[in-house]
Amino acid sequence: MSSSAPTRRNGHNNTTPSTKPPPPTSTQSSPSPTASPLTALLPTPSEIALLLTYPLLLLLGSLYSTLSPQTRSSPYNPVTQSHPPSTAPSYFALKKNLPNTYFVKIAWFWVTTSYAIFLLTHPSHVMGMSWWMLLMTATFFHTWFEKLTGLLVAMAGIFVVYFLPRALPAMRDIVGMPGV
Hints:
It is a multi-pass membrane protein. 56% of the residues lie in helices and 2% in strands. By secondary structure, it is mostly helical. A hairpin with a 2-residue loop joins β1 and β2 (12-13). The longest helix is centred in the first third of the chain and has 23 residues, at 45-67.
């Protein structure tokens, strides 16, 4: 077989054009949507619904207390900031109702717990905790070891100004020989 004749593979001539498009190479890329770095910071739809729950409950409660004739005509004691238990317009107007006790009175506990869970489960808590530990260490040393750190700074200054120039001729040319 001569080298100028086209070779046949699988019954097809190699010189005929292929009907299939060539596979994409590394320089050709299909358009893909790229996510902006800010989209990672935006809340998801379920998080938006969760975040809107509290303001919507406040709005509905305010509208109910304003529009309902039972709550408008009910006596209210401004000193105790509550309705008298015997004439309260509803269970939710009492100070000792379950949602008020566990979600308002102990709100500090719920907020602190949720914030601690967030800090401990968030991937970047390590960096935040390292800055917090640095701040607490600096505060600790400043408040408890103020005299010791002052002494260390003074000794470092004496070393740099008096003793280091005696050992390093290049520094002696800049600082001189203090104390001599």
